[in-house]
What does this fold into?
Amino acid sequence: MTLHHFRRRYGKALQSVLGLVIVLVYLFPIYWMITSSLKTSGEVFANPPTFFPKEIYWGNYISQLQNSNLYLYLKNSFVISVCSMIGGILLAAPASYALARKQIRGIGVIMFAIIIIQMVPSNSLVLPLYAMFSKACLTDSYIGVILANITSSLPFVVLLLRTAFLNVPQGLEDAAAIDGCTNWGTFFRVMLPLTLPSLLTCAAFAFIFAWGELLYALVLLPNQTYWPITLGMRTFISQYGTDWGGLMATAAITSTPILLIFIFTQKHIVGGITAGSVKG
It folds into this structure.
């Protein structure tokens, strides 16, 4: 065996092992969350810790599914996440199409500004947004949190969709114009169907961003009636201790919609990321 074949053979094996180790490291917190949710309180605090429940305990899930506040928090999260997703797509799709096809002066400056905005953390925006929304009476309501979530996901969605629109051949739009389509007709009948994988990818990520957001809800929603599940999980932590079993069970229930999104849209998400990452 030559040195080249040796490096090629064992290099691939080393990459596979390294990839497996990275996957296990990332999956371990999820595994620990699920196993902890199936343990009794005594076993959760056992020393040394057990890596698998000695006896499967469903009491944590039963108690949480009987908790009416859980359904309130989940409903609020769905309302906020779905509205944030729809609002972000409705705003980003026309803007991305214009940035991809129209001859706009200073397009480089605009794209640079969008990238900079994307890099700004939410904790730097939450106080200015609170000051504006409080004057507009948008705090303590769904609308304020939805608008705040849209500001977080919009730059990412615009960047991804713009590249997807650039990958569509210009000739298809010219053919649609010859057939009598207006600009909006071409946008809805040609461009959106051809960029559907990227649209689904952006919609999924916009939903996930809003579903897991905590800071905006913490500042903008003092009324518990509007709390999403991320904020409602704070109720498990008190000055007298933390209900880790109930907290982990709620976290597992909360993660279910995200897992379902990835399971049923995995093909479209991969295709959308690929279409939105390379300009043809």
Summary: The two ends are 41 Å apart (CA to CA). The mean pLDDT is 84. Strands lie at 237-238, 241-242.
